[in-house]
Specification:
This protein is of the alpha/beta class. The protein contains 14 helices and eight strands. It has one domain: Alpha-Beta Barrel (TIM Barrel). Residues about 345-350 have low confidence and may be disordered. The protein binds 5'-deoxyadenosine (5AD).
Length: about 350
């Protein structure tokens, strides 16, 4: 699939042709990662954040948000719930919280790894290489850091500087991989200012980075953010719809046949009825049920009305398993790490 094919799929409107795209993605998914849908228990360990991201409700300037940080005991209890539900992975996610010390988190990771067989995925934003190294030594298996967009101008616009110089996320991903983490990245679809050309480059970058995990969800406006308060995208910009998100998801599966790709919470939020199942039928093989304790869940408001934020962990688990069974798929067992079925393609694309 070359850039021209990708661009024409992104603007395709013919339903029959799109049905062909969905079935191609689904066949590739079945052939490379099988019928299992892996469940990753999401634990939102802190909503503190030092960043000013123009899209995210956790940005540091949002003073209307009550902040929380989970204790070690609370995190371990959530990991035990993951085991009870039969999951193979927990994802510890937070804003970029300087209050999470490297040593403290290393202790939490060690406890989970010693007392369970869970894979531990971290999604904690941009952290110092020494911290990443410590957590890897403590047993963390995977790291998620979305590059959000490969368009450097748009990237700068939505990530105002924090004072300290930062390496581009694409370079940070290389460092994460170098440490031996399974490496995940991804984007939001329909960020105001995103063009079809940059979205095409994002997709090629997924392939060229040889990602182990790819997360794709629609941008959802949050009223307390710069982008959420702005007017909606112009005509030649990418719409933040579930259809467009599914096209990107299907194309990501075709470009990264053996990657683990979730039907994301953002997709389920945009379309609570069909978001998860459409995602799973159009390339995805992972769901991430939310295990965050009820009293914190509502406060992890990266965007409004987040799917699952008013439900208990039991209810989120039930919905995920029901969705998988209704599609005739199997619930994944074990850690569900990436099993490579294709040789890596050499890097030819860089961020513009
Ligand atoms: N809409 C959709 N996705 C968002 N994220 C953050 N804010 C939003 C939003 N308003 C996504 C980003 C981030 C991930 C954890 O959540 O892509 O990397």
């Amino acid at each position: 699939m070359d850039p021209t094919d990708i661009s024409s799929w992104l603007t395709e409107t013919d339903e029959q042709k799109l049905a062909g795209l969905w079935s191609l993605a689904d066949r590739i998914r079945a052939g490379h990662v099988g019928t299992a849908v892996h469940l990753r228990g999401l634990i939102e360990i802190s909503n503190y954040c030092v960043r000013h991201c123009a899209y995210c409700g956790l940005h540091t300037g949002n003073t209307s948000l009550k902040r929380y940080r989970m204790t070690e005991t609370e995190i371990i209890a959530c990991a035990e719930t993951a085991v009870r539900f039969g999951y193979g992975t927990v994802v510890l996610q937070s804003g970029e919280d300087r209050g999470i010390s490297a040593e403290w988190l290393a202790g939490v990771i060690q406890k989970i790894k010693h007392s369970t067989t869970l894979a531990v995925t971290l999604s904690l934003g941009e952290r110092h290489p020494d911290e990443l190294k410590l957590w890897r030594r403590a047993g963390a298996d995977r790291y998620l850091l979305r590059f959000e967009t490969s368009d450097r101008e748009l990237y700068k616009k939505i990530h105002p500087p924090t004072g300290s110089t930062r390496r581009h996320r694409i370079e940070q991903l290389a460092a994460i991989r170098e440490l031996g983490y399974e490496t995940g990245s991804g984007i939001m679809v329909g960020i105001p200012g995103q063009t079809f050309a940059s979205l095409t480059r994002d997709l090629l970058l997924f392939r060229d980075l040889d990602l182990d995990m790819v997360g794709i969800g629609p941008w959802l406006p949050h009223p307390d953010t710069v982008l959420g308060a702005e007017s909606l995208p112009a005509d030649n910009h990418v719409p933040n719809t579930d259809l467009m998100s599914c096209k990107v998801l299907a194309l990501a599966r075709i470009l990264c046949p053996d990657a683990n790709i979730p039907a994301t919470t953002a997709l389920a939020t945009l379309n609570p009825e069909t978001g998860r199942s459409h995602g799973l039928e159009r390339g995805a093989n992972v769901l991430m049920p939310n295990l965050t304790p009820d009293r914190y869940k509502k406060l992890y408001e990266i965007y409004p009305n987040k799917s699952g934020s008013t439900l208990s962990a039991e209810q989120c688990d039930h919905i995920a398993k029901k969705t998988i069974r209704a599609l005739g798929r199997k619930i994944g067992t074990g850690q569900g790490s990436r099993i490579k079925t294709t040789p890596a393609i050499g890097s030819t694309v860089t961020a513009s």
